């Protein structure tokens, strides 16, 4: 029964992984590369260079190296004499926004929820729960092979190329239309939060209530306020942002291009399909053995 459970899990998990990677590969190949300056709102892909942001200093937690984004994992070698394995004891990931420049404009990227695939990765070992100083390389790193902890750290650095696919949205620059009804309602809800102030402005007869005529004045003033806020907002320089899509679409940040990523996804989909087939064959064999 335990073997049957494992074989069923392999069948379902392998099939799900294969379909997921195939879908992601098709999204990557079917989405045309856009330029930040002229990109339409919605799901897009960009290819550019990471830039450092002013007044932003990020340092990787294990190596202490300056970077723009990091992810780390600390594992401990533990277990009994018969079975010893690496167990994750600590992991973390930075959430600082990234700045992508493609030559036509710049876009801020919120990496939360993204599948980040950096090119800079270091793995080394030591005897301390938290390493001190940068990773050991060469013969020193080889001598560390018997130590108790294993550290891995991945980073994104300024000047590195970056492929990004996700949900794109812009504000300012006159790019956003005005939904007057929604904007007016938002202003009225804001004013209702200070009802005493609302009464002071619009309660003409000072009876502590707003009649229909006075509410009409509130709605007219809120409409004018909403139009003025939109005008001021439209005069600001355009700001572009990318984040996790609302729908089940891939959100990927990678130092590799889309062709290389799609090729990797196809290989992973093939591996998932093989696991699914192997699990199905094992399930069939085990069911026949149980029923025999």
Automatic annotation (TrEMBL):
Keywords: Membrane, Transmembrane, Transmembrane helix. The keyword Transmembrane applies. It comes from the Bacteria. The chain crosses the membrane at residues 265-291. Residues 226-245 are annotated as: Disordered. PROSITE patterns: EF_HAND_1. This is RING-type E3 ubiquitin transferase.
């Amino acid at each position: 029964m335990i073997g049957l459970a494992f074989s069923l899990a392999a069948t379902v998990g392998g099939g799900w992984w294969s379909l997921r990677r195939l879908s992601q590969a098709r999204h990557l190949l079917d989405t045309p590369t856009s330029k930040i300056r002229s990109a339409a709102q919605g799901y897009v892909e960009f290819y550019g260079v990471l830039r450092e942001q002013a007044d932003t200093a990020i340092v990787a937690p294990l190596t202490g190296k300056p970077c723009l984004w990091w992810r780390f994992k600390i594992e401990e070698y533990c277990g009994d004499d018969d079975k010893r394995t690496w167990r994750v004891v600590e992991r973390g990931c930075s959430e600082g926004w990234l700045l992508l420049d493609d030559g036509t404009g710049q876009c801020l990227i919120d990496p939360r929820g993204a599948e980040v695939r950096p090119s800079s990765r270091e793995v080394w070992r030591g005897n301390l729960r938290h390493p001190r100083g940068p990773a050991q390389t060469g013969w020193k790193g080889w001598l560390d092979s018997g130590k108790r902890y294993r550290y891995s750290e991945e980073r994104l650095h300024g000047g590195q190329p970056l492929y990004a696919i996700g949900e794109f949205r812009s504000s300012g620059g006159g790019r956003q239309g005005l939904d007057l009804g929604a904007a007016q309602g938002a202003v009225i809800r804001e004013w209702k939060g200070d009802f005493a102030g609302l009464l002071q402005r619009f309660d003409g007869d000072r009876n502590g209530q707003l009649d229909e005529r006075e509410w009409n004045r509130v709605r007219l003033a809120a409409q004018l306020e909403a139009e003025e806020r939109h005008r001021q907002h439209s005069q600001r320089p355009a700001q572009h942002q990318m984040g996790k899509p609302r729908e089940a679409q891939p959100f990927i940040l990678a130092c590799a291009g889309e062709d290389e990523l799609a090729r990797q996804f196809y290989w992973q989909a093939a591996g998932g399909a093989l696991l699914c087939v192997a699990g199905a064959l094992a399930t069939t064999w085990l069911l026949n053995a149980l029923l025999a």
